[in-house]
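Team,

Forwarding the record for the chain on the shared tracking sheet. I've put the sequence and predicted structure together so nobody has to dig through attachments.
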Amino acid sequence: MTTMYRKACPNCGRVVTSASRAEIMVEEVCQDCGASLPVVPEEYDPELEAMQQPVEPQFPAASVVPEIQTETAEPAELELVLPDTGIVVGLPRPGGMVGRVPVNCNSIKTFATISRIQFAYVYLDGGGIKITDKSQFGTVVNGALLMPGESCAATTPSTVEMGGAYAFMLREREQE
């Protein structure tokens, strides 16, 4: 086992190595960019590291398959709909707030039992949204009560109850 010491520049990535701990301790500044090197060197065994490096298979040029570019469609924007009323609350990307105060919620400003800020939401990569309750008395998502500060994921179709009386359906936004 051969013990070596190294310091890597946090700025440019240059690596200084030495077989002597005393020698490497003197290296304090990167010769390439002038940044400070770490005070304590890393101890390593170059032979062991060489054995642990993955070996990439070498294929003849004829067997190389070109990479296929595929576009992944972004999941649709969502909206909350109060059934049988025509009331729709848009949920614009990447996230926001729902309640009586936010601009996207004009249709529920008169619902006194819904909090000014009922919940916050953020879109999830795999589709759906993460709902975080911000109200005084909670938000119910698919029958589960979220207390202030609690979060859960919701996908379509889901039921989101606010103000103790209004059960909205979460759905994909209808295209205009």
